[in-house]
Design brief:
CATH architecture: Up-down Bundle
Largest sheet: 2 strands, antiparallel
Radius of gyration: 21 Å
Strand order of the largest sheet: 1-2
Distance between the termini: 70 Å
Helix content: over 70%
């Protein structure tokens, strides 16, 4: 009698501390380095409030992801959720939406990188952004191990840069009116729709569930803690920045945090924060291009995209065809040259996706009502989930503001 082959799952080793730290690392990125100045132009000294509003929306949607991940297998994603809840065709469109959000966001952050770089070295902004995309594509092609190392180092550096800004602003806290809104509350919500970009990645925390001890408790709590910690950092940085130089000067700078540091410590601090911002923005471009190329590769393997996108290089074992196509698509949006437009285009696709995920969560409460869940969204009326409804409505609301920003 033949022995049954053992099937091994992933080792469950992560506790709430490890998952929370990983979550902060996933969320913390270049958004605040690249977009703080642009956001200040519409929300003024109340830019901190825009970051707070965006954090709340991220939490609503994040809790929907947490319950959905407890229904489906650990490596599932938006495509699976929407396919079961709505339709396979709509799920395919959302998959394309996520890919679009990926390469457009890479273009936006590449322009943010170029904004800092051109303040240190005189070069054309779009040329710098395109060269960065090429360099990050090469690192992506070389292999995931090299990518992971670069990401780890850059995360610590970008965290340090934000802490520096907060400490520099401590003695200035309370020096301005933090509710000064040049465009009123509408401007704050428009700014919130833009800076939501800075919370990209929160939905990926649920993917750690298969390696987490007691994921039903740990994942939703870690998601909450990760978003809150990141939001506190962003809010304090926004408060410090407007306290030191005011929203007008912040808005006028293509290297906002470097300008803030220079106002307190002089030109050498400008260079230091500029270099930190270069690490932060380049890291975000890399990680975004890695994730997007893998999404395209996965959809090609599922025969949802052309087969050639599933080709893997024999030596590096990376999806070279998907990597190349993502690079070319990133080029197309980089040449637009306006970071505000490109970031809003990213958020357009993100909010479409998140509205669809929240709607799927509501539908699946009834369509798969007997399916075992290790986590359920809190606040329910009978079986009806209130938080996914708030996530759906807030995503639609932000979508309106994104369209307002674009047109």
């Amino acid at each position: 009698m033949s022995k049954k082959k053992k099937v091994f799952g992933l080792r469950r080793e992560l506790g709430i501390f490890q998952v929370t730290i990983a979550g902060v690392g996933i969320i913390l990125g270049a958004g605040i380095y690249a977009l703080l100045g642009v956001a200040a132009g519409t929300s003024g000294n109340a830019t901190w409030l825009a970051f707070l509003i965006s954090a709340l929306i991220a939490l609503f949607t994040g809790l929907s992801y947490a319950e959905l991940s407890s229904i489906f297998k650990g490596d599932s994603g938006e495509y699976d959720y929407i396919k079961y809840a709505l339709s396979k065709w709509y799920a395919f469109l959302i998959g394309l939406s996520m890919i679009a959000a990926g390469f457009i966001s890479a273009a936006a952050v590449a322009l943010g990188f170029a904004g800092y770089f051109t303040q240190l070295v005189s070069m054309p902004l779009i040329v710098v952004a395109l060269l960065l995309v090429i360099l990050m594509t090469l690192i992506n092609f070389v292999g995931i191990k090299e990518t992971s190392w670069f990401n780890t180092v850059s995360t610590f550096i970008e965290f340090g840069g934000l802490v520096i800004i907060i400490f520099l602003g401590l003695k200035n806290f309370g020096s301005v009116n933090y509710f000064d809104m040049p465009q009123g509350i509408t401007g704050v919500f428009s700014s919130a729709a833009l800076v939501f970009f800075a919370y990209m990645g929160f939905e990926s925390i649920v993917k750690l569930g298969e390696e987490t001890k007691d994921p039903a408790k740990v994942i939703p709590r870690s998601l909450l803690y990760s978003v809150v910690i990141t939001a506190v950092l962003y809010v304090l940085v926004a408060l410090a920045a407007v306290s030191i130089i005011g929203w007008e000067e912040l808005n006028a700078s293509s290297a906002p945090l470097a300008t803030v540091a220079a106002a307190v410590l002089g030109s050498k601090a400008f260079i230091l924060l500029g270099i930190i911002a270069l690490f932060s923005t380049s890291n975000t471009v890399l990680i975004t291009m890695v994730a997007t190329s893998r999404l395209a590769y996965g959809m090609a393997k599922e025969k949802s995209l052309p087969k050639f996108l599933s080709l893997v290089h024999e030596r590096t074992r990376t999806p070279w065809a998907a990597i190349l196509i993502i690079m070319l698509l990133t080029f197309l949006f980089t040449v637009i040259g306006d970071i505000e437009i490109v970031a809003n285009l990213t958020n357009l696709f993100l909010f479409i996706t998140f509205a669809s995920v929240n709607l799927s969560m509501i539908v699946l409460r009834y369509k798969l009502k007997d399916r075992k869940r290790s986590f359920r969204c809190p606040v329910n009326i009978g079986n009806f989930p209130v938080i996914p409804l708030l996530g759906f409505l807030s995503s639609l609301g932000m979508l309106v503001f994104v369209l307002f920003n674009l047109f």
